[in-house]
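User: My advisor, Dr. K., asked me to get a structural model of this assembly before our group meeting. I'm new to this, so sorry if the format is off. These are the inputs:
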Amino acid sequence: MIKIHNLKKSFGENEVLKDINLVINPQEVVVVIGPSGSGKSTLLRCINLLETITSGHILIEGKDITDKMNDINKMRAEVGMVFQQFNLFPHKTVIENIMLAPVKVRGIAEEPARRKGLELLRKVGLEEKALAYPDSLSGGQKQRVAIARALAMEPKIMLFDEPTSALDPEVVGEVLEVMKQLAREGMTMVVVTHEMGFAREVGDRVIFMDGGYIVEENEPKQLFENPHQERTQAFLSKVL
Amino acid sequence: MDFRFDIIAEYTPFLVKGTLLTIGLSIAGILIGTVLGLLIGLGKLVNNKLAAFPFNLYITFFRGTPLFVQILLVHFGVVPLFMGETNAIIAAIIALSLNAAAYIAEIFRAGIQSIDRGQMEAARSLGMNQRQAMRYVILPQAFKRMIPPLGNEFIVLIKESSLAAVITAPEIMYWGRAMAGQYYKVWEPYLTAALIYLILTISLSFLLNRLERRLNTG
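Assistant: The format is fine. Below is the predicted structure of the whole assembly, which you can bring to the meeting.
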């Protein structure tokens, strides 16, 4: 479970997150939507401490990740992250990409790590690409490998930062399909996306952000069909 | 003009010895300069400005002053200070290494910074600490990009080792100048020296090209 209290984040003078309070429950799929510059990606990056937090607290399973006494690396290993630009390691094969962190961070032996990696590749439908280099994959395949790589660390929660925004339209579906499967298996997920169809179908809760605030949150059906806030209505009228 | 091959033949044993010393100076300079350069380059990348300051100062000094001056300073100043008397070969190795380290530090820094920020973020998001991320993700990629500029630097180093002649380190140019002085000849000694340097630098760039090709296909 994640609890976010009074989270603020500024880049210099520019306050990007202004007092965010949010609870994410186990096995919940929370979809974050909003215009660009609303702070939704920054929120995700704060949960993984890829950004230093200006003030406030983030508790993951009761542990305050902003507390310097806690080992950031250990906490990060519990949180999987999938990036818009995939960020696969180009000098390593697909299976090496997946095995690297389990072997080097968790200290798992090569063979079990490889077996686990192949199993994850099968799950995302790319077992035959195990020995390929990322450069030879399509965008959709790269993102599925990136998901498998994050899952190899057996995270308690998965963060998706616009995972389909850099993809050609015809391969968006294959990535969303993998994410849907994860959601069905009960993975706790926070997804920043512009895919309103995915939000509606898979999200347990949708959060609308604008100007550094959470403007409105609700069940997808409620939020999409009956938004209470004017800004939510204005945004939805443009994207739906 | 009669070109005197006989004096080249007479000096051949010395030129061979000189060539071996030039190769020795260059290899020592490359090895020590690369190790020092990596440390200095990493030092410059430290986020703390105060901690990075000495590394910046080092790079500024060694890139901003002539190697000729550095060689004289090391030979007549630094080496006698530590060893009591000077030694041309040691002084040449030290000066070449310190000088190359400054340039190599910049090559390392640029190579590391050229790697997309997302690579570090992905590594860290998988739970790797800074050192693991550097070692397994950033440096292997950066190293590949560093090979062409490093190759240039190594070639420059071979050529600049000729300055060691002025502090009487008996490398190629030392014997070239000796030949010129003995026979009052210009073309024979200096063209011969030029030819030897050319063979050395062409051989090195050939090796580097092969290495680059192999890494690109691997």
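One thing worth pointing out at the meeting: Chain B has one domain: 5-217.

User: Perfect, thanks a lot.
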